[in-house]
Amino acid sequence: MSQRHRASWARVPVPDCSAGRKLTPMCGIVGYVGGQNALDVVIAGLKRLEYRGYDSAGVAVLADGSLAAAKKAGKLANLEKELADRPLPTGTTGIGHTRWATHGAPNDANAHPHLDNAGRVAVVHNGIIENFAELRSELTDRGHELLSETDTEVVSHLLAEAYSSAGDLAEAMRQVCRRLEGAFTLVAVDADAPDVVVGARRNSPLVVGVGDGENFLASDVAAFIAHTRDAIELGQDQVVELRREGVTVTGFDGELGDVREYHIDWDASAAEKAGYDYFMLKEIAEQPKAVADTLLGRIDANGRLVLDEVRIPAYVLREIDKIVIVACGTAFHAGMIAKYAIEHWTRVPCEIELASEFRYRDPILDPRTLVIAISQSGETMDTLMALRHAREQGSRVLAICNTNGSTIPRESDAVLYTHAGPEVAVASTKAFLTQLVACYLVALYLGQVRGTKWGDEIVSLVRELSDIAKQVEQVLGTMEPVRELARSLKDKNTVLFLGRHVGYPVALEGALKLKELAYMHAEGFAAGELKHGPIALIEDDLPVVVVVPSPRGRSVLHDKIVSNIQEIRARGARTIVIAEEGDEAVAPYADHLIRIPATPTLLQPLVATVPLQVFACELATARGNEVDQPRNLAKSVTVE
Ligand code: AGP
Questions:
Q1: 230 and 310, same structural domain?
Q2: What does the pLDDT average to over 368-387?
Q3: Could you report the per-residue pLDDT of 556-578, keeping only the tens digit for each?
Q4: Which of 62, 278, 361, 513 is the most exposed place for a label (fewest CB within 10 A)?
Q5: What CATH number is attached to the domain comprising 262?
Q6: Which domain holds residue 437?
Q7: What is the pLDDT of residue 6?
Q8: Across-strand partners of 545?
């Protein structure tokens, strides 16, 4: 790994976010400098990032002392057609962008990259320049002509001005960044600085790929993993200068910056579809391995937990008197299930909060509160802001995350990584199951450290957890009736989901999957709430999915939900019942019976969720929807 500068990694202080938070989009960014055809490298990288945003796409390359750019509204395929019709000159330095629009409609003019009026500087951007209006009028007063509605374009003009006086693109970028307010990732080239790509980040993802005689910049490692798995995390308010021979990182103040190198442990093929029609289908099928991989190396030969990576001292964990879980969407549903396990196994009060609501309710936090931030991407702004608030209040934060080197684990006191591998489909599946596994591990670990769970109990629970991967595999092998059912319901407008205990968050997750994939009304309820209002929704042939708890152990819950099934069926509902093998009590009231293996009560979500993922995916496919990139959504919601 040839670099001109690489300092040792130091902990990033809690950054001052008093500038407030605005929308920051989830665009895909790629930069390259090296010996290959830059356009080929950049386009291939953008293809791996298209899930982050796909309203428009664009590229810029440096060749023979000039800069050439192309950009088109719509998906990357539109840009590729444009490039086939009007090829750019060949160069070995370039940048590219796929956009998720915030400022300005998704049209050609607003697509990135944005150029200065002389066409010498090109900039791509993810984030929001909050003071762009003021900068725009300044530039206009100085005679610049701005051609788009975007905030990004002001940066290309400012950079051109700064470069003409500084004569150095990295210094020009530092000068410009010192004037910007908001959250941003910027990557730029200048025709007068061949073989140089410069990037900058504040509260928005950017990683460096370090090759041999070539270097990469991207919003996500998936863009360059085909070329190198050696990466560098960038810290807050940093500028990175990429040249063939190496990488230089400084702060916005020009001082050499702290960075951390790491090795990406999954390969390019893992990020491909591996023969499936959709990434989502592949990722559903990968769940047994993802569950097993997340357990790997965390249980010793005696069945005890070994979570050394959770770098919070045991004495601190023993003093914890409250746990607060913060997350969004599917990760929030994992947190709801974690609450049951944590309180049952550790007897520590556990709250679960929507990250977007958390800090606005003035939560009661102190050094004896452990905050657990769950996030697949590690870039969800709501969750990031929640953990920052918790740390400012003196609480310790443990991240549960699937993306090495992302912002949330970097700004937490400790992290327990899930090992689901890259999750590309916007609808989260394997990340959810591995979040559950990680939450169970944390709960059992707390029980082990605090002595509320004894060795033999932990060993038996860990053994049952270890068996789950096989049971998920077993469920996957019985999904054809679920697919047929989904296809038969493709013209329905509404599906309801009911559950009790840990089945209630599973019902919510099933509803979310159907919303985001089939674009239909889907709602989850605690089954006990039916008579408090929702039962009024029941009408003839209305599909209602019911997640039935095991009849063993907590049979009172089971009996109550069987009554609920009878109540809705008596009112015409079409009952779709998910129940464990051998549970015959539900059979008379199930229009469709989906069997799952018997598991301990708290672990049932690991098998009960899978049919709901398959159901939603198949129904969306039957409707002709785009499964991996549903409308209006993006994979990493760096939005607040
Ligand atoms: C789930 O299918 C959605 N993609 C969404 O709810 C997601 O779980 C949520 O945005 C949280 O994302 P994170 O796990 O990356 O923080």
A1: no
A2: 96
A3: 999 999 999 999 999 999 999 99
A4: 361
A5: 3.60.20.10
A6: 279-474
A7: 37
A8: 497, 576
User: Does the residue 347 lie in any domain?
Assistant: yes
CA distance 610 to 603: 13
**pLDDT band (50, 70, 90) for residue 5:** very low
Smallest CA-to-CA distance from 640 within 22, 19, 3, 20 is with 22
Active site residue 177: no
Residues 201 and 343 placed together within one structural domain of the fold: no
Residue 456 lies in a domain: yes
Structure tokens at 626: 């785009």
pTM, entire model? 0.75
Question: By three-state DSSP, how is residue 314 classified?
Answer: helix
Substitution site in 333, 352, 353, 376 for ligand 1 pocket (most atoms within 8 Å of beta carbon): 376
Q: How confident is the model at residue 260 (pLDDT cuts 50, 70, 90)?
A: confident
> Three-class SS of residue 305?
strand
User: How large is the C-alpha radius of gyration of the chain?
Assistant: 26
Degrees to nearest 5, angle at CA 198 with 193 and 203: 160
Same domain for 263 and 287? no
Provide the domain count of the chain. Answer: 3
Reply yes or no on whether the pLDDT at 439 is more than 60. yes
CATH number of the domain bearing residue 608 = 3.40.50.10490
Q: What is the pLDDT of residue 310?
A: 85
Please check whether residue 373 lies inside any domain of the structure: yes
What distance in Å separates the CA atoms of residue 583 and residue 555, rounded to the nearest whole number? 11
HEC states along 385-418?
Answer: HHHHHHHHCCCEEEEEECCCCCHHHHCCCEEEEC
d(CA 271, CA 420): 11
**Same-domain check for residues 372 and 491:** no
Q: Which of 27, 177, 350, 439 is catalytic?
A: 27
Q: Residue written as tokens 């947190």? A: 335
Amino acid at 241: E
Cα of 380 vs centre of ligand 1, distance in Å, is 8
Residue 390 lies in a domain: yes
Question: For residue 637, how far is its CA from the centre of ligand 1 (angstroms)?
Answer: 7
Burial 157-182 (b: 16+ CB within 10 A, else e): bbbbbbbeebebbbbbbbbbbebbbb
Total count of residues recorded for the chain: 640
Span 419-439, mean pLDDT? 94
Q: Phi and psi dihedrals of 270, rounded to 5?
A: -60, -20
Structure tokens at 164: 């003409």
Ligand 1 atom with the smallest distance to the CA of 382 is 16
Q: What does the pLDDT look like over 50-104, one tens digit per residue?
A: 766 667 899 999 999 999 999 999 889 999 999 999 999 999 999 999 976 656 6
- Are both 599 and 507 inside the same structural domain? yes
Backbone angles phi, psi at 365, to 5 degrees: -130, 150
Name the closest-CA residue to atom 8, ligand 1: 330
The kind and range of the H/E element at 340 are helix 329-346
Q: Are residues 417 and 435 in the same domain?
A: yes
Query: CB 364: neighbour CB atoms within 10 A?
Result: 10
Is the same domain home to 360 and 391? yes
